[in-house]
């Protein structure tokens, strides 16, 4: 990665320049590094980074596979990165989920469309993911029966059932395990008679899991996370995408309505337009005021863009044009507010400009108004007018591969199935 920071200042503003940048970034990731000789089985060991969509090899295989499918890169690069990702035993427990371990490798193989690996190995990985789903469903059922609060990793996109459901929806919507996941997420929306201060006053996804770096006293009674990555917007997006794909279980429409009504309830409005607190505490709920003093950065993972896209998908599933217009208005207000845009400090998919552009792009494909499409061009220009460093990490979600894929999409004028791992799309996007 040495010298990579000098590649882009600023980002390109046209398709030709985007094509060149994507190629140059992909070239810096042409060959995987030597396999590290690391001892131990610590789940936090860097030996497992190779199985991470966020910062490791699977996301880079997706980059090269996407470019190979468009005939601008050799398939050998994607194959080399995928082979490097499989040097360690598959992670299928603990912190494994859509973004890490066996599901990440299966998703990469699917999205990269590697011809020589696909059929046999994908079938094996699908089996591993299905077994993971059944284990996690069993754990969730025990937790619900005991009237205990969930941890985000039970249901979220990154490690939980929502992410595994996203994998199954992308792979094959007819998988029975997908319906099991949807049924569990429907149950997640039912309040739990927990023996704590919140009781049934709060929704079923209310968690007591302490967020890193936050004041203990503020979150002592738990909170609702609204974000796409770790919060309730992820389940909302999956339930809605599955509904649109005609994968429907009892109570699914009601669950979509429940989450949508909650997001209506906790929505804040100021001069910048509608926004949602990243986390809402019991005090916030009872006082009807957020401890957060304004909208956070307009990121995919926690900000208004991801939440607005989830609400747009819900409205599309419900056939509710009024709610759809409201969601699109919230997104448009966010991305035309320069104070919010100025909070984006990097180029990644998760937290930065690539994620914002990709989120708005997918919303534009379903939008009732041409305004979002016009704003997409303005956002690409705005990103190009900022001198921001290339991500130091190499991966998809938090790294260079995500930036390169976004630039490749701008160059070709189309997205790819990699957007499914952000739950911006559920099958092949347009």
UniProtKB/TrEMBL annotation:
Q: Please give the Pfam families that the UniProt record associates with this protein.
A: LANC_like
CDD domains given in the database record: LanC
Q: Which InterPro entries match?
A: LanC, LANC-like
Q: Which Gene3D superfamilies match?
A: 1.50.10.20
Listed SUPFAM superfamilies:
LanC-like
What is the designated name of this protein? Lanthionine synthetase C family protein
Q: What organism does this protein naturally occur in? A: Actinomadura meridiana
């Amino acid at each position: 990665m040495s010298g990579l920071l000098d590649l882009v200042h600023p980002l390109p503003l046209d398709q030709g320049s985007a094509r060149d940048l994507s190629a140059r970034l992909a070239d810096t990731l042409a060959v995987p590094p030597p396999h590290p000789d690391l001892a131990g089985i610590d789940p936090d060991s860097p030996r497992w980074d190779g199985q991470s969509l966020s910062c490791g090899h699977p996301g880079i295989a997706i980059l090269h596979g996407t470019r190979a499918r468009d005939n601008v890169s050799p398939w050998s690069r994607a194959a080399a990165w995928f082979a490097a990702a499989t040097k360690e035993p598959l992670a299928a427990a603990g912190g494994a989920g859509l973004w890490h371990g066996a599901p990440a490798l299966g998703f990469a193989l699917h999205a990269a469309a590697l011809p020589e690996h696909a059929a046999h190995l994908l079938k094996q990985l699908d089996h591993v993911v299905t077994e993971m789903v059944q284990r996690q469903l069993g754990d969730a059922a025990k937790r619900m029966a005991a009237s205990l609060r969930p941890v985000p990793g039970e249901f979220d996109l990154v490690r939980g059932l929502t992410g595994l459901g996203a994998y199954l929806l992308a792979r094959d919507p007819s998988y029975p395990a997908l319906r099991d996941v949807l049924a569990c997420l429907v149950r997640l929306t039912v309040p739990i008679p927990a023996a704590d201060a919140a009781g049934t006053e709060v929704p079923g996804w209310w968690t007591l899991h302490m967020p890193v770096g936050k004041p203990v006293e503020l979150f002592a009674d738990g909170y609702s996370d609204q974000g796409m990555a770790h919060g309730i917007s992820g389940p909302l997006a999956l339930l809605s995408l599955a509904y649109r794909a005609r994968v429907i279980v009892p109570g699914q429409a009601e669950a979509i309505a429940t989450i949508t009504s909650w997001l209506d309830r906790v929505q804040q409005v100021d001069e910048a337009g509608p926004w949602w607190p990243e986390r809402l505490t019991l005090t916030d709920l009872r006082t009807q005021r957020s401890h957060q003093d304004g909208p956070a950065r307009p990121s995919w993972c926690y900000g208004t863009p991801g939440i607005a896209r989830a609400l747009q998908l819900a409205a599309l599933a419900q056939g509710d044009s009024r709610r759809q217009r409201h969601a699109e208005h919230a997104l448009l207000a966010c991305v035309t507010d320069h104070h919010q845009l100025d909070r984006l400090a990097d180029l990644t998919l998760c937290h930065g400009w690539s994620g914002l552009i990709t989120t708005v792009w997918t919303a534009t494909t379903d939008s009732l108004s041409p305004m979002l499409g016009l704003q997409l061009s303005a956002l690409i220009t705005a990103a190009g007018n900022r001198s921001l460093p290339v991500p130091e990490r190499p991966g998809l979600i938090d790294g260079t591969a995500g930036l390169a894929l976004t630039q490749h999409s701008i160059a070709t004028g189309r997205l790819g199935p990699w957007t499914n791992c952000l739950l911006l799309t559920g099958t092949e996007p347009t």
